[in-house]
Amino acid sequence: MKNIKYYCLVMSNKYITNHFSDIKKYASIVENRMEDEGYTIETALRDNAKILEQCQIYKVNYIFIDDEYQIDIEL
Prior knowledge:
By secondary structure, the chain is mainly alpha-helical. 47% of the residues lie in helices and 11% in strands. It contains three helices and two strands, in the order βαααβ. The chain has helices at residues 13-25, 27-30, 41-58, and strands at residues 8-11, 62-65. A two-stranded parallel sheet has the order 1-2. α1 packs across α3 (41-58). It is globular, with a radius of gyration of 13 Å. The mean pLDDT is 86.
């Protein structure tokens, strides 16, 4: 377990607003979502704000995605 690195992906409001259709399109790539008709831009913004808050409270690693989704993590 000591070799596992945890990073939470957090998106800016701007990124969510500009890329919401892509977020929905690729939603099941990481997790298998059964139904997401109720997943709106409003729920995405709210959920994302909560995730950011929790990352900051518990001081976990997170990657803030603002302009483009290009991540380079040293393994």
